[in-house]
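Bench notes, afternoon.
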Amino acid sequence: VGSPLRWLDRHRSAFLYKDMARDWVHRFKFGNQTRIRTAMVEAMLRNRGICQLLAGADTVTYVPMQRLALAKRGYNTAALLAYGIAKQAGLPIVNTVVRKSGAKQHLQPISKRTRNIAGQFRLVTKKKWQTVVLIDDVSTSGATVEEIARLLKQNGCAKTVYAATFATTPNHLL
């Protein structure tokens, strides 16, 4: 479903987004069960593909939330995962983009997510890295990580952008 990823160099995920992984994401994201983060970080760091991405990285970043959504939930699941991963991997973590307001991705049909997310992020750094690993909790279409990769690359912030997610649908893994 959707077009192949153009800007993202590689995407690795610890699990497919179903069964236990889907339950953990929902408990973390919508059930205010932030303690599950530790187990999610550990699972991601046991994944060989994710470890390979981190081994060649200069820094870690994460998918930001819209300001109002963040205020309502009180935490950003992607940021919490990223901080745990960066700490364990011995990598710096940076906030590279902020999210503008707009329709929520998870409420959009997969076929419309690429169009919905276009232009929804603004760069907040001028730093330059060779390789950035972008962390998110779940990726269902790849549109969000693809848009952030595009922004980082087109603005000269990164030559290589990898994504590492806790769970993903199988459609778009590279």
